[in-house]
Design brief:
CATH topology: Alpha-Beta Plaits
Largest sheet: 10 strands, mixed
Low-confidence stretches: none
CATH architecture: 2-Layer Sandwich
Mean pLDDT: 91
Helix content: 10-25%
CATH class: Alpha Beta
Shape: globular
Number of helices: 4
Number of domains: 1
Strand content: 35-45%
């Protein structure tokens, strides 16, 4: 029995930052598989399941806009926070008046996708856990508009709407349905957390990439080669 899902996501703006352009931010042309996974996990997550993105349907035309945003140039380090808690040291803080910088960002505008995905059971699933149970919980939360954290497109300033895809074949809804092929280049696929220590904490987290090819508005993520 298949436990695949189709989720429609849309929003006014999106920013899927290219890692090579992280200061003056430049977005990828479309949503990354890791961002799509993050949206699903914001609806329902359990240690006994792992989402896998199969296909991404690009429904709206790819359009860019340029904006300027106020950002801070530094961040509070977790090590400084731990020191403040365990050794009664000074609390770290950021003076936004001193640290603020105005930076340009190239973002996507008027975005809409259908995410096709499935989930696998992990070794952390218990005897009471099963795919049917997880699927029922996920779909119930999706239909009720429930989520653990607000879903967003790449950055929390770009909130997005999420609902179960209730249409027919999403390929027929795509602006690119009649376009044969568009090479979107190398894109971030996800982060590799497989290197863990004895306590189960990930070490040496490394990025993975894939070559995104859009055919008739569909990116076949599952069928793409992943580069480490």
């Amino acid at each position: 029995m298949a436990y695949g899902i189709k989720v429609e996501v849309w929003g006014d703006r999106a920013l899927f930052t290219r890692p090579e352009l992280s200061v003056e931010r430049m977005t990828y042309d479309v949503i990354t598989p890791s961002a799509a996974r993050g949206i699903l996990e914001s609806i329902y997550w359990h240690p006994g399941m792992r989402y896998k993105i199969d296909r991404i349907h690009v429904l709206n035309p790819i359009k860019f806009t340029s904006v300027r945003r106020n950002e801070v140039k530094s961040k509070a380090l977790s090590s400084a926070v731990r020191t403040a808690i365990t050794k009664d040291g000074p609390l770290p803080y950021i003076d936004t008046h001193e640290e603020i910088q105005q930076r340009a960002s190239v973002m996507l505008t008027d975005v809409r996708y259908v995410i096709e995905a499935h989930f696998d059971m992990t070794e952390r699933a218990t005897k009471e856990d099963n795919p049917g149970k997880f699927k029922d919980i996920l779909m119930r939360r999706l239909r009720r508009g429930q989520f653990y954290s607000a879903p967003y497109f790449g950055t929390r300033e770009c909130s997005c709407n999420v609902q179960e895809w209730s249409g027919g074949d999403p390929r027929k809804e795509s602006y690119y349905a009649s376009k044969e092929c568009r090479d979107l280049g190398l894109m971030l696929y996800d982060m590799d957390y497989s290197d863990v220590d004895a306590h189960g904490i990930a070490q040496n987290i490394t990025p993975m990439f894939y070559r995104a090819i859009m055919r008739h508005g569909v990116i076949d993520v599952a069928g793409s080669e992943v580069f480490r």
